[in-house]
Design a protein that fits this description.
Blueprint lengths: L3 E4 L4 H4 L20 H4 L4 E9 L9 H18 L4 E3 L3 H9 L3 E8 L11 H6 L2 E5 L20 H13 L2 E3 L5 H10 L4 E2 L17 H10 L3 E3 L3 H4 L5 H14 L6 E3 L19 H10 L4 H24 L1
Parallel strand pairs: 1-2, 2-4, 3-4, 4-5, 5-6, 6-7, 8-9
Helix pairs in contact: 10-11
The structure holds zinc ion.
Length: about 325
Amino acid sequence: MNLSVFDFHCDTALALLGEDRNQAGSLKKNKYHIDLERASVLDGYAQCFACFTTPLEAEIPPVVLFERELASIQREIAKNSSRMALAYTPDQIRENREKGKFSAILTLEGTAGIGYDPALLEDLWNIGFRITSLGWNEQNPLTGSHLTGGGLTDRGREFVREAQRLGMLVDVSHISDEGFWDMIDIAQGPVIATHSNSRQVWNHSRNLTDDMFRAIVRTGGVAGCNVCGEFLGEAPTVDTLCDHIFHYLELDPTGKHIALGGDLDGVEHLPQGFTGVESWTAVARRLQERGLDEQTSMDIFWNNAIGVMELAVYNHAK
Ligand SMILES: [Zn+2]
């Protein structure tokens, strides 16, 4: 199967640091969910690598954790430069695929590691960060989370404006419902949920209601489907993930606003039939067996992600 995969979210940068968060794991081959050897079954591959930071991870100050993740993922990409390259633009992602190279995109999950400071976003943009959330599961100076409730603060609104000014995509995956709607109110460009499934299919606060998904569609954004067992359903299988995708397709028959955000290396329970990056082929095959046409499949697995990155940059250029 010739399959290209663009995945909006993984925690591999964190996983590579190991249990003590201070090791130097290998992106080429490892025991986690994503490595380049297993990804070689894919025809094209673009992976967003999140630098994860939160004050809830108490053992290490968030700034230190952020720096370690960033340093380790930058080093691993550089070490594997014949196979993978950091991509700054949608064009570079396309060119990399044509050259048989994988793309890495830097993203921010949680903002504790940059002191919740919108003024630092431009520096992050310059070194390749293309997506930012406002927080993880905590209440922070920018917003409440899906666990705490509470909407955007003034500083949170400033953060969103600055990200969108730069052309950086804003990510609502861990945000509270109030924060989500505050974000939609002020958004000047596409809003994305990098790794969130459908709450209609499985009732979990990390998943999107139908109204939320429709609001994302109206901004031109996308929702990335997640393989975390807790967000999929009871005793989930690859088919359960397909159920979430097919539900989103009922709300968006164009299929232009659905993407992937696997959450690999950030989850403990994978659905039956899914073992890691190599398993995206099993998902594509099952979607095909269940009647998904090839064009829509290519859109979900690759084109829509590139399209929304282009839209963010286009907004930036305006
Ligand atoms: Zn997450």
